[in-house]
Amino acid sequence: QKEVEQNSGPLSVPEGAIASLNCTYSDRGSQSFFWYRQYSGKSPELIMSIYSNGDKEDGRFTAQLNKASQYVSLLIRDSQPSDSATYLCAVSAIRGSYIPTFGRGTSLIVHP
Amino acid sequence: EPEVTQTPSHQVTQMGQEVILRCVPISNHLYFYWYRQILGQKVEFLVSFYNNEISEKSEIFDDQFSVERPDGSNFTLKIRSTKLEDSAMYFCASSDAGENIQYFGAGTRLSVL
Fold it and tell me: Of A54, A93, B68, B100, which has the highest C-beta tally within 10 A?
């Protein structure tokens, strides 16, 4: 069974700091990796996707993937109070299924 | 910007009743999905739909669930006889290809009393 593990948090960081969110996954065949942001009571909103080992940057967000270690992370630079949300890691395998498996999410609190 | 729309935003029903949750996927998308999220839990896949048939379903998607694309724009999830444990947020999503990014609707909160 595919598992995606995240620390539930909350992760609390001061405004302006770097927030680091981590995710591990069990299926070595996984090929696609996503980070979603979910505000309380709202739907998941895609913020980053990554498919190859290494870093991918988009504005204040950087996704990092290490397939050998089965590890994906999200860095948020210059964290803002509006970044306070739950961050969901989702993983899917091209082999067999494109359906992403979601982690439980990490709650991030950015305090002024 | 195109978006996935879901109606109603909140549905209250009595246990044992049938409910239909509605979704309008993004217009040029071909793949449609339903997920649910029980309060405080992870997002769980229910079913995917392509070319007018179910392409994949999870163990959750048992005989009490069905999906339909009744016309060119709507995609529905029917729960035949609701149980208390069906209370959750139900999200519809769509993508333009099976391996591509899925875009989520705002969700329908289903409350079974």
Answer: A93
Helix-strand-coil percent breakdown of chain B, rounded to 5?
5, 50, 50
Q: How far apart are CA A107 and CA A12, in angstroms?
A: 9
| DSSP codes of every residue in B71-101 | SSS-EEEEESS--GGG-EEEEEEEESSTTSP
Q: What is the mean pLDDT of residues A49-76?
A: 96
Enumerate residues 6+ apart whose C-beta is below 8 A from B70. Answer: B76
Query: Is the pLDDT assigned to residue B27 strictly greater than 60?
Result: yes
Q: Decide if pLDDT at B98 tops 80.
A: no
| Amino acid sitting at position A16 | G
Residues of B in contact with A102 (CB under 8 A): 42-44
Q: Please list every residue in chain A whose beta carbon sits closer than 8 Å to the beta carbon of residue B105.
A: 43
